[in-house]
Amino acid sequence: MENLEDRKHAQLLEILKSTRSISHYDSKTLKTLIPQITVAAVLVFPNIVVGIIYAYSAILIPQLMEAQNSTDPNVLRVSKSESSWITSSAMLSMPIGAITGGIIMDSIGRLNLLKLMVLPCVAGFVIIATAVNVPMLIVGRMLTGIALVWGLN
Question: Could you tell me the pTM of the whole model?
Answer without folding.
Answer: 0.70
